[in-house]
Amino acid sequence: MNLYIGIVKLNALNEYLVTERTTIVDNAVTFGIKKCNDMDINIEKRGRRRVKRTMPGESAHDAGLSIQEEIRRSMYECIDRFIQEYDTARFGAMQYGP
């Protein structure tokens, strides 16, 4: 593989991640939950609950995220970070190729 083909493949990967971001995360979470259920692995949160202090006048409690929501948030964060790093100056000169 030469440099030009590498640039084309990186551009294609970036475009795929931008357009299919939600689908990738949804499929991965569904696959992970299915595998955990097949292997009888409990996916509930473990550990103690953290109690958030409320300011005077506040009445709402922080519900927190479920394990699936935490996984989704983490995956979106990773994909967004890759896209952000790709769009920076590090790869900026390579985006268009010859």
Task: List key phrases describing it.
single chain; mainly alpha; 98 residues
Structure description:
- The longest helix is centred in the C-terminal third of the chain and has 21 residues, at 67-87.
- The protein has one domain (1-41, 64-98).
- It is built from 4 helices and no strands.
- By secondary structure, it is an all-alpha fold.
What's a quick, concise take on this entry?
With 98 residues, the chain is mostly helical. It is built from four helices and no strands.
Helicity, as a percent range: 55-70%
SSE series: HHHH
Poorly predicted segments: none
Number of helices: 4
User: What's the gyration radius in Å?
Assistant: 20 Å
Looking at the structure, what is the overall shape?
Answer: flat
Report the end-to-end length measured between terminal Cα atoms. 16 Å
Kindly state the number of beta strands: 0
Q: How is the main sheet built?
A: none
Structural category: mainly alpha
Mean pLDDT score: 80
β-strand percent reads: under 5%
The domain count comes to 1
List the helices and strands and how they pair.
Layout: H1 3-19, H2 21-38, H3 67-87, H4 89-92
Helix pairs in contact: 2-3
